[in-house]
């Protein structure tokens, strides 16, 4: 079955690769004959995006052509996208100064256009580059700004149906926290990113990176079963996608876990595969990581010559990524960006001051108009007073007093508080973190020094820890798998199924499963199948999983009763089927201890279990209930404490 699945994955991958090549050839032909600059830019973006996931060097080649084109033309559409994508391709290839050069230009362009969406995109690309060369705190500030702008974009749209698409930013924040060894925070953001991506195939390659990061975090936390689940899923996604730039990330984590489990051959296999994939896609950072891992593996296995070869390769890659010249370029770029940020803040402050000045002048103008009108009115009144009879003398004097009072009234003080907070210069960190794997640092040092006693002591400690990791990892893995199964949407294909054959198959499966765990297990397995039962339309894998879970629960119930029962007690598990009133009924019965009345109402609740800690996840019956309900059926329970329990599945024909 596994071979068939792998073969199908291979067919899908080959077909997708063929489709990509066909699409590329078609786009290249259109590019050769296109004359309009706007059309050529759109085609270059499309070609570069396809190449990005499989051949980043080719992607950078086309995006550079696009950059040259936008600098020569007056076309505004696609300028920011070209610059961002060119920078991202340079980042993947390890040329961080060139990456930041393009991305800072894209950010400046977006700000000049006052485009919130383009600023958001540029911030994310810059943050990703900062992650690559270890400036995780700086990267976090860029991604947090991008998430804030995402929220603003959704509010500006004023459309309740628009969903916040910030999965990539959340993933990147999770990567930052993982690199900062804040693994709980990393796991939180990675799970948020997984929810944000959902089933959207647009994020396929980002989802592969997410799986690699999830595997890495669970590996560091000692949950290797969970780590392997995500990493193997990542490999399947790579196969389906027909390749991915994040393939090497998955292989690196698999090599590290294999090495920790002392599976040397597997570790060598994954490390070499990673190196080959990284060299194929010209990813300098991944080449350095693969070479460093292979160097350590050869040192641990007495391959001194090979270790020296890979050490030299790792050093060469490190120099090309973080050498003095590169570092100086990065410093200059970041200083220039800091100056641009400060100038932008100063310009914003000047704009605010201009606005305040205009408002003040307008206020003063209005005030002067009012004064002029009052003065004119006063003059009119003064002229009129000469024609007013003496009887109005008192009134005239009163008016003069009021006018005089108005003239002498304080106009008030207009104070404008101008606060200009200048952002402190960025504190550039010069100590780029070493990317060597630290887990076996002491062991490598002991091997290098030839201290065999220390090596043996370290190996013993590792084996002891492995036992604890394995114990808790299995428990965690069971819970995680159960949770994933409980929350996922059923995508299986229904087919006409022989229920009797299905029940018989899983009855045998349950028996052999318990025998494999406990050779002393003995129980009477009975079946009472209705031979007239027709086939029904179900997802056989899902329904089989329900039947198997019910039978396993029945086996556990009779085993528990047998431990304290009298000698005449015969453990019995019965599976029966019958056709009843247009429905198919499947009943699994045991003669165990039954279920206490106090907990009968909770039996189908998620995470509720009657088994001791470590023996059950509490999700089996909950998943079974949901699966039967999804098939339009019902799952019922009948129990008598001390005498046994029956679970009945009813499915409509």
Question: What does this molecule look like?
Answer:
This protein has 653 residues and is an alpha+beta fold. Helices cover 68% and strands 7% of the residues. It has helices at 2-33, 37-52, 56-72, 79-92, 96-113, 116-132, 136-157, 167-179, 183-197, 204-220, 224-241, 247-260, 264-280, 284-300, 304-322, 324-385, 393-408, 441-449, 452-487, 499-517, 540-564, 620-630; strands at 495-497, 524-528, 536-538, 572-580, 583-590, 634-640, 644-652. A five-stranded mixed beta sheet has the order 2-4-5-7-6. A two-stranded antiparallel sheet has the order 1-3. Helix 1 packs across helix 11 (224-241) and helix 6 runs antiparallel to helix 7 (136-157). It starts with a helix and ends with a strand. Mean pLDDT is 75; it is low at 1-15, 399-439 and 481-489.
Report the portion of residues in β strands. 5-15%
Distance between the termini: 30 Å
Report the C-alpha radius of gyration, rounded: 36 Å
Strands across the major sheet, in which order? 2-4-5-7-6
Number of strands: 7
Could you spell the SSE succession in H and E letters? Answer: HHHHHHHHHHHHHHHHHHHEHEEHEEHEE
Q: What is the CATH top level name of the domain at 495-652? A: Alpha Beta
Largest sheet: 5 strands, mixed
- Would you tell me which CATH topology of the domain at 495-652 applies? Heat Shock Protein 90
